[in-house]
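DM from R.C. (forwarded with permission)

"hey, sorry to bug you on a friday — could you get me a structure for this? deadline for the figure draft is monday and I only need the backbone to look sensible"
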Amino acid sequence: MPFTVVIEQDEDGVYVAHVPALPGCHTQGRTLAELDERIREAIALCLEVARERGEPIAETRLVGIHQIDIA
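My reply, with the result:
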């Protein structure tokens, strides 16, 4: 099952990822490789918890990402 993962970089250079289809599913890493490993683990855990609770897994479709600068 594919999931959209949104990745940002904070002011300290740390990569932060979250999965919009899985509320509360997020993690961080110092490198993109570390982040990839951690978000895969986070997704697996979020799915496990959702299944245990009988919660539905939302299906989302990535439409696009838009960054807006506000002066």
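R.C.: lifesaver. The chain has one domain: 1-71.
me: no worries. The mean pLDDT is 94.
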